[in-house]
Amino acid sequence: MSLSNRxxxxxxxxVRDGNPNGDPDAGNLPRLDAETGHGLVTDVSLxxxxxxxxxxxxxxxxxxxxxxxxxxxxxxxxxxxxxxxGKAELLKGDDKxxxxxxxxxxxxxxxxxxxxxxxxxxxxMSTGVNCGQVRGPVQLTFARSADPIIxxxxxxxxxxVATEAEAEKQDGDNRTMGRKHTxxxxxxxxxxxxxxxxxxxxxxxxxxxxxxxxxxxxxxxHDRSAARGEMATRGLYVFKHESELGNAPAHALFERIxxxxxxxxxxxxxxxxxxxxxxxxxxxxxxxxxx
Length: 291
Hints:
CRISPR-assoc_prot_Cas7/Csd2, Cas7_Csh2/Csh2, alpha+beta, Type I-C CRISPR-associated protein Cas7/Csd2, 2 domains, 8 helices, eight-stranded antiparallel beta sheet
């Protein structure tokens, strides 16, 4: 069933003694706003966790396949689309990028039908074999921590080496040194948007929306690693509009979710207070707390 409502949502999640999103341009230090010191987690990182969760739950099978995944060869996937619409002959020859407009539209529709992340987040699929571009109905912002974070650096040792040559250099001592970066504690907030108009274009359904909510609630439970420490969703607040165009500006709704700390140095979720102003909501808007 297609969507006929607009949705705006607020996602709250925490990290304890972990690195929620390292910056490869800064030695994998936790991402932060250089001017304010607030921690950042990119929308790409959050979407990766949603993709991984859906792939885990649905077995990476149509119509819930994942387009952007580890070791994926995108042009091979595009070729599958042309084979799926019965236009495999267009793949012959050297000029694979620009095909007939009708075939590209059909290939784009096939990708939306079979890949959850394409019809949810959109994709640019015009590399090599052209399946067009899709603008996704679900968009996420960067997540930002409620307070400035402190990135701690730790020395770690490994009681092994990779090669015999390294072992000889160590004179029998196989210990090698490394560095690890963590955030002692951080509470992050991200904003999200769901457009029913774009959902109709991609085929994003109510079932897909329910799966998205489930992923946002549970994705950290299946993304454990030593690097990320303890991460958990602490709040998911969904504003539903009666109108497809919306009954209130998103920013005004987001301002109803306020986070304030009640400890000088927060080290747990209990050190914060989340105030939810659900009184006198705009006409046509309802607020549902999923976490």
